[in-house]
Write a structure and sequence with these properties.
The chain has 8 helices and 11 strands. The chain has 233 residues and is of the alpha/beta class. α3 packs antiparallel against α4, α6 runs parallel beside α8 and α7 packs antiparallel against α8. The mean pLDDT is 94.
């Protein structure tokens, strides 16, 4: 048994399709993969981005909304995604809870680490919403922080359109090459942008390794032959 945290972007939930908020094929693949992990006695946590619903940069640049305000609105988008995924999981017989860093008692429970640990021990999936509850922190950083606080053995970042870490953006850079294994320090030094560098440094400083896989490999979450590994050392 192990405790695993999966981080999915909002774009992954949409399947990368313009004009689509939630791709049912993606949600179906998610629930199948998570159900299997739970059946194999793993304790599963999720962090979801909100980019399929909202981009704070649009408000900041086009409407002069302050960065902190835009970030809070983005946190609300992650709550919406968490509620959608929770209900979809429930409809497919996966017992799931949403824990928000922003108090919303009529909608979901608050983030209380000891309570979350109890949910996990009972075989429930937990989705963390509203990031860390403060502006200037990404959901990548949230994923690493929650994993550290709750003792996850691994954080797996599930990406849409790529199957791991590359030297550049393979969608626009034909010379970008796949990286199977790399140290967190090298990721920071080379400024590789697949993940928020603050999250990479936080993981490195606390001895937590990270993995990056493609959405198509979600059913192989525990298969270390797929994706890329960012080692803590």
């Amino acid at each position: 048994m192990s405790r695993i945290l999966l981080k999915l972007s909002g774009e992954a939930l949409s399947g990368g399709k313009n004009g689509t908020l939630f791709d049912q094929d993606v949600l179906h693949g998610m629930v199948d993969a998570v159900r299997q992990l739970v059946a194999d006695k793993h304790e599963v946590m999720l962090v979801l981005g909100g980019g399929n619903l909202f981009r704070g940069a649009v408000l900041s640049t086009q409407l002069s909304v302050e960065r902190a305000t835009a970030d809070y609105i983005g946190m609300l988008a992650t709550i919406q995604n968490a509620l959608v995924v929770r209900d979809y999981f429930h409809a497919h017989d996966v017992d799931t809870r949403v824990a928000s860093a922003i108090a919303m008692p009529q909608v979901c429970e608050a983030y209380v680490p000891k309570r979350i640990a109890r949910h996990l021990e009972k075989g429930r999936v937990v989705i963390f919403a509203a990031g860390l509850g403060a502006p200037y922190f990404t959901t990548d950083t949230t994923a690493v922080q929650r994993a550290l606080e709750l003792g996850a053995k691994e954080v797996v970042f599930v990406k849409n359109g790529v199957n791991g870490l590359y030297t550049g953006d393979p969608k626009s850079d034909q010379h970008a090459t796949f990286i199977k294994e790399i140290s967190a320090s090298s990721v920071a030094q080379q400024a590789l942008r697949a993940l928020d560098l603050s999250a990479v440094v936080l993981a490195r400083d606390n001895g937590l390794s990270l993995r990056i896989i493609g959405m198509s490999d979600l059913s192989r979450t525990l298969d270390h032959t797929v994706g890329s590994i960012i080692k803590a050392e």
